[in-house]
UniProtKB/TrEMBL annotation:
The lineage of its organism: Bacteria, Bacillati, Actinomycetota, Actinomycetes, Propionibacteriales. The chain crosses the membrane at residues 36-56, 62-82, 157-174, 211-235, 255-282, 294-317, 323-348, 369-388, 431-454, 474-494, 501-520, 561-582, 594-617, 629-655. The keyword Membrane applies. InterPro entries: DctM (IPR010656), TRAP_DctM-Dct_fused (IPR011853). Residues 143-571 form the TRAP C4-dicarboxylate transport system permease DctM subunit domain. Keywords: Membrane, Transmembrane, Transmembrane helix. This is TRAP transporter fused permease subunit.
Length: 672
C-alpha cells in the first residue's frame, strides 16, 4: 500500500460558499457601502449580546419588533431584488459591485419605519388589537409585503407563495361548504393583518422569537469561532488524526464535517468548505468523483444533525416542547451515533470496493496541533457545561463567545483585534438575515393555522384517509408516518430546513399526536426528515454543491449521498413506529438507550451491507437480500423481530464467510 503526501488547501472563498448556500447569494457590495452595513450589523450583534444580560423592560414582543426593525432592512439591502436600470443605482461608479438601487433603499426605509411604528405607543398599539386603526392596517400590510419580499430574495419564491396560499385560505375558507373538514368561519383582511402584525402568533411568534433569542447568538458565536482560527484548526486536526490507512481520508472527512458544523451551522456550507479542502486528498487516495461527492455531502449534513449545535430547528423544538436545549441535544445523541456509524461502515466498504490508498496530508501531528490549538474546544465544552448547570443556552453561548474572544489572543495570526472582532460580529448578524426573513414569513403560516384551526382539521383528514384503507392501528400509523415523511421531504426540497420544520410541525405533527405519538418523538422525526431533504433527489443541494467540486455528475452523486445517509432515513421511523423507539431518544433512561443503540447499530451494519456490498468480501445478491429485511426487523426493536433479524443477519454473514473461503481456495490469499 502506497502513501501519498499532498498539501491541505486553504478552503473556499466567501463567493464559493455563497454559490452553494441554500439561501440565495448576497450582493457583492462596494467597499464603502459594505463597511457601512458591516458597522450596522456589528452594532446589532452588540445590542443582541447586551440584551441577554439587560433585557428590555417592555417585554419580549417589544424586543422582537426592535430586532426585526434592525434586521429586515439589511436583508432588503444585502440580497438582490428585481432587476432595475443601471442609472437608478446610486453607487454605480464601482462596476464590480451590484449595490442596491434607489428602489431598494426606499423599501429598506419603509421596512424600518413600519417595523418601528408599533413602538411609538406600544401599550396603546397592543390594546387596539381587536379594533385596529386604518394606520395599523396600512403598516401591517406594508410589513407583510416587505417580509415576503425579503424572504423571496433570500430563499426563493416557494415559501412566500405558500404563505400567500395560507392567507388566501384564511380569507376564503369561510366560503367552503360547511360540511368540508377544512371549512371555517372566514376572516376579513383586517382580522388577518391584526393577527399577523398585532398578535403573538404572526411576525412576532415563536419562529422569530427563537431566531432573535437563540439562533442569532449562535451565529455570532460561530463567526467569532471561525475568525479566531477554529475552522482551520478543526480541518487540520481532522487530517492529522487519521494518516496511516486507506480508510483514513474518508474518516478524516467525517470528523472534519462534524467539527466544522459547530462553526457553519449550514449543512451545504459545511460540505462546500470541506469539499474544497478534502477533494484533492480523496482523489489522490483513489475515490471516484461521485462516491467522494456523496461522502462530502453526508458529512456536511451530519454537522446539523449532531450535538452540540444541531440546526436552527432544534431551538424551535426546545421552544415547542418547553424543555431546555440540552434536553434536545440528549434526544439527538443516539441517532447521531447511528448516523456516523453508518457513514464509517460505508467508508470501510467503499475503501475495499474502490481499492483506495492512504493519502497523507502535509500537516503537523495531531498531538502537536491539540497541544498548540486545543483551546478552541474549550468554549464548546463550556456551552454544554453551563447548560448542564441549568444556565440558559442564550447566556451560555454569550459566555462562550466572550471566552473565545479572549482565547483568540493565544494565536498571533488570528487574535481578535477590534477591527477583526467587529468583522466577526458583523458576519454573525449577516449570517442570520436569511433565517430571520424565513422565520418572519413562517410566522404567517403559524398564525393562520392557529387562527383557523387548520392543523387539527388536516390531522383528522390524514388519519381518516389512512383509516379508510385499514382499521388496524399499526397499519394506520405506518401509512400516516410514511406519508408524513414524504410530505416533509417534498416540502424541504423547496424551502429551507427551518421553514420546512415549522410548517410540518404545525400541519403534520397533530396527525401523529392523534395516533398516540409523543411530541418529542414526532418533532424529532420531522426534524430529521427536514434536514435530510438536503441530500434527497431531485434537488439535494448539498450533493449538487459537492458534485460541482468533485466534477461528478449531480444525480449519481445524490444517490451516493443517499447511500451514506440511509440509516438516518430509516432510524427516525423507529422513533414513532416501535414500542421501544422512545429509547433511541433517551426518554426511558440510559439502560434503554444502551440496548436500543446496540440493536440499532446491528441494523445500521445490515443496511451498510445492502448499500456497500461488502462483509468479509464482496457480497452477492443473496447476502443483500437477507440483510435488508434483517435491518428492518432489527429496527422495529421488539424481541421477536430482533430475534428473526439477528438470524437473517447471521445467515448472511455465514454465507459471505463461506464465499471468502471459496475465493481463497481458488485465488489464494485475498487483500485486506
Amino acid at each position: 500500500m502506497t502513501t501519498s503526501t499532498i498539501s491541505v488547501g486553504t478552503g473556499p472563498s466567501a463567493a464559493e460558499l455563497a454559490a452553494f448556500e441554500q439561501e440565495r447569494p448576497a450582493r457583492t457590495l462596494s467597499p464603502v457601502l459594505d463597511r457601512g452595513i458591516s458597522v450596522c450589523c456589528a452594532l446589532v450583534s452588540v445590542g443582541v449580546l447586551v440584551q441577554v444580560f439587560f433585557p428590555i423592560p417592555a417585554g419580549t414582543q417589544f424586543y422582537l419588533m426592535l430586532f426585526l426593525a434592525a434586521v429586515l432592512p439589511g436583508a432588503l439591502l444585502c440580497y438582490r431584488g428585481w432587476r432595475v436600470p443601471a442609472f437608478l443605482n446610486p453607487f454605480r461608479g464601482d462596476r464590480r459591485s451590484d449595490d442596491p438601487p434607489v428602489a431598494d433603499w426606499v423599501l429598506a426605509s419603509v421596512a424600518l419605519v413600519v417595523s418601528l411604528y408599533p413602538l411609538l405607543d406600544f401599550d396603546a398599539f397592543l390594546e387596539r388589537r381587536q379594533a385596529p386603526t386604518q394606520l395599523d392596517l396600512l403598516a401591517g400590510s406594508l410589513l407583510l409585503v416587505l417580509a415576503l419580499e425579503a424572504c423571496r430574495r433570500t430563499t426563493g419564491w416557494v415559501l412566500p407563495v405558500v404563505s400567500l396560499l395560507f392567507i388566501g385560505y384564511a380569507y376564503y375558507g369561510g366560503y367552503l361548504p360547511y360540511t368540508w373538514s377544512l371549512a371555517h368561519q372566514g376572516f376579513d383582511f383586517s382580522a388577518i393583518v391584526a393577527q399577523l402584525f398585532m398578535g403573538t402568533a404572526g411576525f412576532y411568534g415563536t419562529p422569530l422569537a427563537v431566531a432573535a433569542s437563540y439562533i442569532v447568538l449562535f451565529t455570532i458565536y460561530g463567526a467569532v469561532l471561525d475568525a479566531s482560527g477554529a475552522g482551520k484548526f478543526f480541518i487540520d486536526v481532522s487530517f492529522a488524526a487519521f494518516k496511516s490507512s486507506r480508510t483514513a481520508p474518508g474518516r478524516t472527512v467525517t470528523l472534519a464535517g462534524f467539527l466544522l458544523g459547530t462553526v457553519s451551522g449550514s449543512g451545504t456550507a459545511t460540505a462546500v468548505s470541506l469539499g474544497t479542502v478534502a477533494w484533492p486528498i480523496l482523489r489522490r487516495a483513489g475515490y471516484p468523483s461521485e462516491p467522494a461527492g456523496g461522502m462530502l455531502a453526508a458529512a456536511g449534513i451530519g454537522a446539523i444533525l449532531s450535538p452540540p449545535t444541531l440546526g436552527a430547528a432544534a431551538f424551535i423544538i426546545a421552544e415547542y416542547l418547553q424543555v431546555s436545549y440540552l434536553v434536545v441535544l440528549g434526544y439527538a445523541t443516539v441517532p447521531t451515533v447511528l448516523y456516523y456509524l453508518g457513514i464509517l461502515l460505508a467508508i470501510e466498504m467503499d475503501a475495499r470496493r474502490h481499492g483506495t490508498e492512504a493519502a497523507e496530508p502535509s500537516t503537523e501531528s495531531a498531538r502537536r496541533l491539540l497541544l498548540r490549538f486545543g483551546y478552541h474546544f474549550v468554549s464548546l465544552f463550556l456551552i454544554i457545561g453551563f447548560m448542564a448547570m441549568d444556565i440558559p443556552p442564550f447566556k451560555a453561548v454569550v459566555y462562550a463567545t466572550l471566552l473565545q474572544i479572549g482565547l483568540s489572543f493565544l494565536d498571533r495570526e488570528h487574535r481578535l483585534t477590534p477591527r477583526r472582532l467587529g468583522m466577526a460580529l458583523a458576519q454573525g448578524t449577516r449570517s442570520v438575515l436569511p433565517v430571520v426573513a424565513t422565520c418572519a414569513v413562517a410566522g404567517i403560516i403559524v398564525a393562520v393555522v392557529t387562527q383557523t384551526g387548520l392543523g387539527l382539521n388536516l390531522a383528522e383528514i390524514i388519519v381518516s384517509a389512512a383509516s379508510a384503507i385499514s382499521e388496524n392501528h399499526t397499519v394506520v400509523l405506518i401509512m400516516t408516518v410514511t406519508l408524513s415523511a414524504f410530505a416533509v421531504m417534498v416540502l424541504g426540497l423547496a424551502v429551507p430546513v427551518t421553514a420546512s420544520f415549522i410548517i410540518a410541525a404545525v400541519v403534520i405533527a397533530p396527525a401523529l399526536f392523534q395516533l398516540g405519538v409523543a411530541p418529542a418523538e414526532a418533532y424529532m422525526f420531522i426534524f430529521y426528515y427536514a434536514v435530510l431533504s438536503e441530500v434527497s433527489p431531485p434537488t439535494a443541494l448539498a450533493a449538487v454543491a459537492t458534485a460541482a467540486i468533485t466534477g461528478g455528475r449531480a444525480i449519481p452523486t445524490m444517490w451516493q449521498a443517499w447511500k451514506y445517509t440511509l440509516p438516518a432515513f430509516l432510524v427516525p421511523f423507529a422513533f414513532v413506529l416501535t414500542p421501544n423507539g422512545a429509547n433511541l431518544l433517551g426518554l426511558e433512561g440510559l439502560g434503554g438507550a444502551a440496548w436500543t443503540l446496540a440493536v440499532s447499530a446491528l441494523a445500521v451494519a445490515a443496511l451498510a451491507v445492502v448499500t456497500g456490498g461488502w462483509i468479509a468480501v464482496r457480497t452477492g445478491r443473496l447476502e443483500r437480500l437477507l440483510c435488508f429485511p434483517a435491518a428492518l426487523l432489527l429496527l422495529y426493536l421488539a424481541p421477536t423481530t430482533i430475534g428473526v433479524g439477528l438470524g437473517l443477519l447471521g445467515v448472511a454473514v455465514v454465507i459471505n464467510l463461506a464465499r471468502r473461503q471459496r475465493l481463497r481456495n481458488t485465488e489464494g490469499p485475498l487483500p485486506s
